[in-house]
């Protein structure tokens, strides 16, 4: 994945520690577009799409996930990286 290469780790770590405000509206919009792409590419009836969307529209699910997360807490974002990349997402969601 572009941007997630070894040489970019210091930049990624700095962004995780940053106290700069995170725009929840922008994060919701970006996640909405990604969730819509999943639904468009895999189909609304795919098991993966149904699991990810949990019976909601892409916009509703994105808002739920982002608005119930710890994205605005730099200390939590940073501590979450220390538990391993596969456990990061569940910890970001309250």
Features:
disordered C terminus, 94 residues
Class inferred from helices and paired strands: mainly alpha
Q: What is the number of helices?
A: 6
Topology as H/E string? HHHHHH
State the share of residues found in helices, binned by percent: 55-70%
Shape verdict: globular
Rounded to the nearest angstrom, the distance between the terminal CA atoms is: 27 Å
Q: How confident overall, as mean pLDDT?
A: 82
Q: Kindly state the number of beta strands.
A: 0
Alpha carbon gyration radius: 15 Å
Fraction in beta strands: under 5%
- Runs in which pLDDT lies below 50 for 5 or more consecutive residues are 86-94
Q: Biggest β-sheet, characterized?
A: none
Summarize the structure.
The protein is mostly helical and 94 residues long.
Structure overview:
Mean pLDDT is 82; it is low at 86-94. The chain has helices at residues 9-17, 24-42, 47-53, 58-67, 74-81, 88-92. The longest helix has 19 residues, at 24-42. With 94 residues, it is mostly helical. The protein has 6 helices and no strands.
